[in-house]
Write a structure and sequence with these properties.
The chain has 223 residues and is mainly alpha-helical. Helices cover 80% and strands 4% of the residues. The relative contact order is 0.13.
Length: 223
Amino acid sequence: MSNIFYSSIGKKLLMSLMGLFLISFLLVHLGINLLIITQDSFEPFNKAAHFMGTNKVIKIMEFALFGGFILHMVYGAVLSIQNMLSRPVGYKVANNSQLSFFSKYMFHTALVITIFLILHLFDFYIKAKFIGDVGEVVYDGKSYHDLGTLVFTRFKMLGAVVFYLVALLGLGFHLHHGFQSAFQTLGLNHPVYTPIIKGLGLLYTLVVTLGFMAIPVVIYFFK
């Protein structure tokens, strides 16, 4: 059983499972963030963020989430390096020509996403959770972190908007290939179902990527 953590197939299976877990998380994250631009005040967003940050079940899930991020990144990096080292030059050139644009640059988009995640976590999560460098607001006699104002202030800065749009584009490329390859690695490769999975992957990628990109754009230009 322990060999699963060391074999190439085992690493791919675990990376796929972690990827599908992160794909689910992104939908929840998007739903909460869209409250910033779809509601008249920051109160629903701040209360939802407070619930996600204080609920005991969610806090336990945070460990699984960060563990999933780290496992997904480490296994992805290890597999990419192993693949590069194991391919003869001639085979590598021939094989690369058969790869889709999205699969060819999975490692590069992963690097972009990793840099983005580090800055994003420091800018919002760590500031609110550990540094306390976030203003507070009171609703119904109860104090909440005013993350809505923090997001709004950040996306009134053109540099931050451009950075987020570029990073989210990288996320979209990564998700487009990652969604279908995760199911393929899990053995769900079928002439009937695979096109459906690819279609769902494209739909999911468009919804998540454009949904997240809409937030800085709407705040910068229309709020």
